[in-house]
Amino acid sequence: MSYRVKEMIYTLQGEGANTGAAIVLCRFEGCNLDCSFCDTDYAGINGPSGGEFSTAASLAEAAYQCWQGDDPSRRILCTGGEPLLQLDSELLDTLHERGFEILLETNGTLTAPDGIDWICVSPKAGEDSVIRQGNELKLAYPQEGIDPEKYSNLDFRYYYIQPISGVNLKKNIRLAIEYCLKHPRWRLSLQLHKYTGIP
Ligand code: SF4
Question: Distance (Å, rounded) from C-alpha 71 to C-alpha 91?
């Protein structure tokens, strides 16, 4: 199988429990949803170091070359779009062989292959998550039609509320803070890259 990647960059994770951690960010092309608040350009393969990789080995080699840290234990964040449209066991195995810890950010509507080291689900209104357990549940907030408590029976270690960016960002931050203060299971996640200039 070949893999289509919008961009691959060495950066710091800007959101959620791994905020500030060095990662190779691998943004796969395409998504199976069409959220009104989406702020991600996942179309095409024309971003930095993007392209079509004809094998899992060639993608893993590109990720290996992308890592710039002095730590031999590497970390890759598979995101999108929706990375589970493409991420398969062969690619997971190959990335592990190259020394990568594999982090996933998914909308949760597709099943995930075994072997992912960190699963972050970001559920979307009107879509049931088929991934019901993982490390981190991160909810873009507020979303019409979503009560965060609907997810409280799922099996995640961390629960994050992340204000939706755009013209209502200030209001959404206030609402998110209010929510976290009232429901302490939830923590506030801010999109660090939007405040710091980290790509
Ligand atoms: S699931 Fe994520 S990437 Fe896909 S359209 Fe919705 S917000 Fe955008």
Answer: 22
